[in-house]
Specification:
mainly alpha; 0% strand
C-alpha cells in the first residue's frame, strides 16, 4: 500500500511539472508574440514618418527648383 502512494505521488508531481512547463511555454510564446507585434507597429510608424519626411524633402527640392526657375 505504501509503494502505491509513492508511485501516485511521483506521477502527480511529474504531471504537475509537465503542466507547469506547458503553461510557461504558452506564457513565453504569448509574451514573444506581443513584443513582436509591438516592434512591428513601431517599425510601421517609423516607416510612415520616413515616408512623410521623404515627401517633404521632395516638395522642398521642387520648391527650390521652382524658385530658381522663376528668378532666371
Amino acid at each position: 500500500m505504501e509503494i502505491s502512494i509513492w508511485v501516485i505521488t511521483i506521477i502527480a508531481v511529474a504531471i504537475g511539472f509537465y503542466f507547469l512547463g506547458f503553461l510557461c511555454e504558452k506564457y513565453l510564446r504569448f509574451k514573444l508574440i506581443k513584443k513582436t507585434k509591438l516592434k512591428i507597429k513601431q517599425a510601421e510608424e517609423k516607416a510612415k514618418k520616413l515616408l512623410m519626411l521623404q515627401k517633404l524633402m521632395e516638395n522642398l527640392k521642387q520648391h527650390k527648383f521652382d524658385k530658381k526657375w522663376i528668378m532666371n
